[in-house]
Amino acid sequence: VEKLQQEIEQVFRDAESIWDSQKYRNLKTLWDEQDPYPFYLAEEQMDWKIGWSALEAYWEPIPGRRMIEAIRMRFYDIKIKELSQDLVFVGGWVRHDMKIRGPMKAWGGDARMSAVLRKREAVWKFVAYTESHRTPLTYMMDLYKKQPKIPIVRSIVERFLTRLYEKNVHPEFASFHKSIMDEEKTEYKVSFSKKLSF
User: Fold this and answer.
1) I want to staple 97 with a disulfide (CB 3.0 to 4.6 A). Which of 65, 86, 132, 173 is the partner?
2) 146 within domain boundaries
3) Cα torsion at 54, 60, 63, 66 (round to 10°)?
């Protein structure tokens, strides 16, 4: 059991490394690509992403471009239940800190997560992943859409919830965000210089 726990936790450490790299499309390398119907549900999503086209579009909506300045994911309290020799159910928590491009401030939060992994050629791969509760901010916004007579309360609640997320950013995220943006500026300068060279 201890060996299996270590193997599964390593998959999540590998996922953290890919998120840290900001190359989200590489998350696919951790999934069972022979499975035609992977399931994925992040906490901000309205509904499941099912199938490779949906997952790839979620990870990288515009190929080659990041919509997020920086995101940092950390998985913890990982617990496993062996379903068979080649299937494992995983339960635990995920911590995210992120900064979207634009004027919005960085924010952070924690969510329960669960996953199913399949052993494929001695390597554990995701076949399903979900973050178990929906983001309170988007959930409350949808609830208020059903109550058009109280628009003032809606705006107050949205500001309050957004502020809570902004206050919840991990202390280490500021330096992480800066390093990602510095790297992006360097890559842009190198790319721009190459375009100008003849």
Assistant:
1) 173
2) no
3) 160
pLDDT single digits (tens) 156-192: 777 877 888 888 899 999 999 999 999 988 765 545 4
Tell me the two tokens of residue 118.
Answer: 């399949």
The CATH number of the domain where 76 resides is what? 3.10.450.50
Range of the domain at 106: 2-134+168-196
Element (H, E) at 187: helix 173-196
Q: Is residue 28 part of a domain?
A: yes
Question: Hey, what amino acid is at 29?
Answer: T
Q: Does a structural domain hold residue 32?
A: yes
What tokens appear for 132 in the block?
Answer: 């178990």
DSSP state of 106: P
Q: Rounded distance, CA 58 to CA 38, Å?
A: 13
Cα 172 vs. chain centroid, distance in angstroms?
18
**In a domain? residue 25:** yes
Count of structural domains within the chain: 1
CA end-to-end span of the chain? 59
The pair of structure tokens assigned to 96 is 């995210």
Q: What is the pTM of this model?
A: 0.82
